[in-house]
Design brief:
The protein is mainly beta and about 120 residues long. Helices cover about 10% and strands about 55% of the residues. Strand 2 and strand 3 form a beta hairpin.
Length: about 120
C-alpha cells in the first residue's frame, strides 16, 4: 500500500503546473470600496488590505480543460487567500480578479482589475 502512495506522489510531482504564461511573469491587481492591491510574481504575492501580507503561492491551476480563469492559493503566517484571475476586460485592464480572504472569522470577497506585468 505504501508503494502505491509513493508512485502517486511521483506521478503528481511530474504533472505540469500552470504558470502565468510566456507573455508575462505576473499581475498587479487592485480594487476600490474597499481599497486593496495584490501583486503576483512567480511564487510570491503581496496583498495589501487592512495590512500588508507577504505570501507564497504554493498552488496554481486553470479551469478544467481551459486556459482561463486561473486560481492561486496564497499563504502566509497570518493570512490565507484564494485569487481567481480571468481574462475578462475590467475597466481599462485586460483581466478581472476576485480575492477570497478573511479577517478573523469573517470571510471577505474583494473584486477588482489586474494588469499583466512583464
Amino acid at each position: 500500500m505504501i508503494g502505491m502512495w509513493k508512485k502517486a506522489v511521483v506521478i503528481c510531482a511530474a504533472l505540469p503546473s500552470v504558470t502565468f504564461g510566456q507573455e508575462h511573469s505576473g499581475f498587479l491587481c487592485e480594487g476600490t470600496a474597499p481599497d486593496w492591491t495584490l501583486t503576483l510574481q512567480e511564487d510570491i504575492a503581496t496583498l495589501n488590505f487592512q495590512r500588508r501580507s507577504e505570501m507564497t503561492i504554493p498552488h496554481q491551476t486553470a479551469a478544467e480543460g481551459q486556459d482561463w480563469p486561473r486560481a492561486m492559493t496564497l499563504i502566509s503566517r497570518n493570512d490565507t487567500a484564494i485569487v481567481i484571475i480571468d481574462q475578462q476586460s475590467c475597466g481599462s485592464a485586460a483581466y478581472s480578479a476576485q480575492v477570497l480572504t478573511q479577517r478573523g472569522e469573517t470571510p471577505i470577497l474583494l473584486t477588482g482589475c489586474c494588469t499583466a506585468t512583464p
